[in-house]
Specification:
By secondary structure, the protein is mainly α. The chain is built from 6 helices and 2 strands. It starts with 10 loop residues before the first helix and ends with a helix.
Length: 126
């Protein structure tokens, strides 16, 4: 199952659908000893979204700019570069950088192919 929206859709409007369509399911809250954290940016800051996230068993962490600056000054800042690096790897594929496919299935197939190539190159080349 996948969930694709247009680029001009605001994050708040699709936040709960995105969480519900996570591909890798997390352990159920009753079986896991620790609650699972969910780090979000300020675009998700609304009471409705926070309540829905809590209802689904997550602890929301929505940082404001002041808190983000304080975290950057600590020894272990947030690892946003992992997401940015992965997006950069995907953008190296011209077919993914600008979406030309009209069908979601075709685009998603290209995303899977590109990610398979990225993983195989990382395994072979190191």
């Amino acid at each position: 199952m996948y969930f694709i929206t247009s680029a001009n859709t605001h994050d708040v409007t699709v936040a709960t659908n995105t969480i519900d369509n996570i591909v890798i399911k997390r352990p159920s809250p009753s079986k896991s000893k620790h609650k699972q954290n969910l780090c979000l940016d300020k675009a998700y800051h609304s009471k409705e979204v926070e309540q829905e996230i809590i209802k689904r068993g997550y602890i929301p962490h929505i940082l404001h700019r002041r808190e983000e600056i304080k975290l950057l000054q600590k020894k272990h800042p947030a690892r946003r570069w992992v997401v940015e690096r992965t997006n950069s790897w995907d953008n190296r594929f011209r077919k993914l950088f600008t979406r030309y496919e009209k069908k979601d299935e075709n685009y998603f197939g290209l995303v899977e192919l590109a990610n398979s190539l990225i993983i195989s190159r990382r395994l072979i080349l190191g």
